[in-house]
Design goal:
With about 280 residues, the chain is of the alpha/beta class. It is built from 6 helices and 9 strands. It has one domain (about 5-275): 3-Layer(aba) Sandwich (Rossmann fold), CATH 3.40.50.1580. Helix content is about 30%, strand content about 25%. The structure holds hypoxanthine (HPA). Hypoxanthine binds next to strand 5, strand 8 and strand 9.
Length: about 280
């Protein structure tokens, strides 16, 4: 059994369950953002554990469900709960969900996450469009023998985060009156500990604007598979040492939920635009 066969098996099961439904847009929900799935109408939920060969996640606050539903009349396939590098699963598992979405016909992928801000003027509750990333995690889901049926050996990452999709997201934010949307470079660490203040200073010096423990592997496999990718970080805290006090997962969850309000408004305007985009 190759990875390709596993993905085919997962996708075939889902296509069968979905019947006529063929979402072109995929959405991955980050920490504190699970409730966004409630914005989908005519939703159909499938537990990850029910999907053959599909990996499950272990983090609290991360559900494990694929939800297909409609937003503004456009079908979306939503992954509620992701596998993280810090869980210790093999790197290829980090991209499994996204590859399965590609297998059912998804062409545009929206990745969301909770992140720490590296800019003192961009605090909790703000949203950041991901312009580019720095993979500082030491993890890469494409390591190992390449299966050309999944994508090329050496994928280009020049336009990893689609400028066109970002422009549509800016328009959607304006329509939704989310006027403090920012954009910047997301740096991924493996985690699971939060950074030290010295690490945060280094990341600022490297040109990053936000730091988190996910998303980059999913972008890499999505680009490998030829999907277009948009990323939105919900800022839950300032980086370690930039604010008073310690960082906690509870804060990530509760502040993530705060940013879910503007994020929902933005997505409700954006997804119909993406449905019309070619
Ligand atoms: N660091 C890493 N990951 C995070 C943070 C952080 O400060 N906040 C939310 N996810």
């Amino acid at each position: 059994m190759t990875l390709f066969d596993d993905i085919q098996a997962s996708a075939a099961f889902l296509k069968d369950r979905l019947g006529e439904r063929r979402p072109r847009i995929g959405l991955v929900l980050g920490s504190g953002l699970n409730d966004l799935a409630a914005s989908l109408s005519d939703a159909m939920e499938i537990e990850y554990s029910a999907i053959p060969r599909f990996p499950t996640t272990t983090v609290s606050g991360h559900h494990g469900k694929l939800i297909v539903g409609s937003m503004g009349g456009v079908e979306v396939a939503c992954l509620q709960g992701r596998v993280h590098a810090y869980e210790g699963q093999p790197a290829e598992k980090l991209g499994y969900g996204v590859r399965t979405l590609a297998g059912i016909g998804v062409e545009i992928l929206i990745l969301t996450n909770a992140a720490g801000s590296l800019r003192s003027d961009v605090g909790p509750g703000r949203l950041m469009l991901i312009e580019d990333h720095i993979n500082f995690s030491g993890v890469n889901p494409l390591v190992g023998e390449n299966d050309d049926r999944l994508g090329p050996r050496f994928p280009d990452m020049t336009d990893a985060w689609s400028a066109d999709l970002r422009e549509l997201a800016q328009k959607a934010a304006a329509d939704a009156h989310v006027d403090d949307l920012t954009s910047g470079v997301y740096l991924m660490v493996k985690g699971p500990n939060f950074e030290t203040p010295a690490e945060i200073r280094m990341m600022i010096g490297m040109g990053a604007h936000a730091v988190g423990m996910s998303t980059v592997p999913e972008c890499i496999v999505a680009r490998h598979a030829g999907l277009r990718v948009l990323g939105i970080s919900s800022i839950t805290n300032l980086g370690a040492g930039m604010q008073g006090g310690a960082l906690t997962h509870e804060e990530t969850m509760s502040e993530g939920a705060r940013a879910a309000i503007p994020l929902r408004a933005l997505l409700e305007r954006l997804i119909p635009k993406l449905g019309a985009a070619r």
